[in-house]
Design brief:
Shape: globular
Number of helices: 7
Oligomer: single chain
Helix content: 25-40%
Strand order of the largest sheet: 1-2
Length: 166
């Protein structure tokens, strides 16, 4: 019998699939949302099954936001394939983000490794994000020059406020 895939939230997907490597984590191994419980509500608001269409996350520095965002990207690529646009302020930062954050996500998470395998069109010397992009699983990594167009299209999105549980 054919069954649809289970409906997962971003935090559930991360707990089941996300692996942190020693390259970018002080605690390599499986992602555990329980280590950063304050991120759970934000991550789950990014889930396909959540009613929010815009999530605003006000936070301090070094609280895990980038990694929770990477979990969201992994969730989209693996669980609910859809075009993704990741925006960084400059070309240099976009390239660095790709090398330091996206490539480790794709190379260290078994659920995403199969989507970034080398082929003659995508040799092993290319980055994981280049191999994934060539397969059309990850649309674009762009910089701030494109923001005017992006912001214009985002104005049509309704705003939903998500407040973490106390």
């Amino acid at each position: 019998m054919l069954r649809p895939p289970p409906q997962l939230t971003v935090s559930e997907w991360a707990d089941q699939h996300r692996m942190l490597g020693s390259r970018g984590s002080a605690e390599p191994g499986p992602w555990r949302t329980s280590r950063t419980p304050y991120l759970k509500d934000v991550m789950d608001a990014l889930s396909a099954v959540h009613p929010a269409r815009r999530v605003v996350f006000m936070k301090g520095a070094q609280v895990g936001a980038t990694e929770s965002g990477n979990c969201w990207l992994g969730y989209i690529m693996h669980h609910v394939p859809a075009p993704v646009l990741a925006v960084q302020p400059t070309v240099e930062l976009a390239k660095r983000f790709s090398r330091q954050r996206i490539d480790p996500l794709l190379e260290e998470t078994p659920a995403l490794v199969a989507q970034t395998t080398s082929t003659p069109a995508n040799p092993a010397g290319t980055t994981a994000s280049e191999r994934l992009s060539a397969g059309r699983k990850f649309s674009s990594l762009v910089w701030a020059a494109a923001m005017a167009t992006i912001m214009t299209s985002m104005k049509a999105c309704p705003v939903t406020t998500v407040r973490p549980k106390a």
